[in-house]
Design goal:
Layout lengths: L1 E5 L3 H13 L3 E5 L2 H10 L4 E5 L7 H10 L5 E6 L4 H9 L4 E4 L4 H14 L8 E3 L2 E4 L4 E4 L2 E2 L4 H12 L7 H8 L10 H13 L6 E3 L3 E3 L2
Parallel strand pairs: 1-2, 1-3, 3-4, 4-5
Antiparallel strand pairs: 6-7, 7-8, 8-9, 10-11
Helix pairs in contact: 2-3, 6-8
Length: about 220
């Protein structure tokens, strides 16, 4: 999934991003509300992890923007305010979930995954196609009961191909979902990842190239 983390404490923001990237999500960072609005206007995110007390533009206003703009992005609001009234107020703004600081990174990752499922048509708990089994929660892939160790990017790309249910996925779509905003679209990152993925999945080949369009698992 593509996640935007908006947090003005750099160390916490970096820790959240690292944890979510370990879960194979593509993560962008913003340090204030204005930067968050800029990124939301450019990129499409599945989940927004949003600190409520932000400089420049308050987190409440960022949340309102997401709701009023009709963006499909789900909002997980973070705050140090733990009172019930604060949680109710945050949810009343249109946030989909609310997590108080301090929090366990495992819980944050689980909530992000749950919200991500709501930002798109519901996926089955385990993705299966052409002898492949991909379990997002366990971060495991099997081909015909053989465990296939994949890197984070390979796992993310394979998940998007399986979610497409046989349809072709363009390189641009894979970049949007599996890489963050710092990737150079001309580096051949998608092609190289597909090449490595094919090698690890083994024969007979499963990932087809549709010339001029993208990739698919028929």
């Amino acid at each position: 999934m593509r996640v935007l983390v908006v947090e003005d404490e750099p160390l916490l923001a970096a820790a959240i991003a690292e944890w979510l990237r370990d879960e194979s999500h593509a993560v962008d960072l913003a340090g204030d509300g204005a930067a968050a609005l800029d990124r939301l206007s450019i990129n499409q995110y599945d989940v927004l992890v949003l600190d409520r007390d932000l400089p420049v533009v308050h987190g409440d206003d960022v949340c309102r923007h997401v709701v009023e703009s009709g963006l499909p992005t789900r909002v997980l609001m973070l705050t140090a305010a733990a009172a019930v009234t604060d949680r109710v107020e945050g949810l009343g703004l249109g946030a989909d979930d609310y997590l108080t600081k301090p929090f366990a990174f495992t819980e944050l990752a689980a909530r992000v995954l749950a919200l991500g499922r709501r930002s798109r048509p519901a996926d089955p708990p385990v993705l299966r196609r052409a002898g492949l089994t991909l379990d997002p929660a366990r971060h495991e892939v099997f081909r015909d009961q053989r465990y296939v160790p994949l890197s984070k990017k390979e796992f993310a790309v394979l998940a998007e191909l399986l979610r497409a249910d046989g349809a072709t996925v363009s390189a641009e779509q894979l970049l949007e979902k599996a890489w963050d905003e710092h990737v150079d679209p001309f580096t051949g990152a998608v092609r190289l990842t597909i090449l490595k993925l094919r090698r690890k999945l083994g024969e007979p080949g499963l990932v087809e190239t549709v010339t001029g369009v993208g990739y698919r698992i028929p």
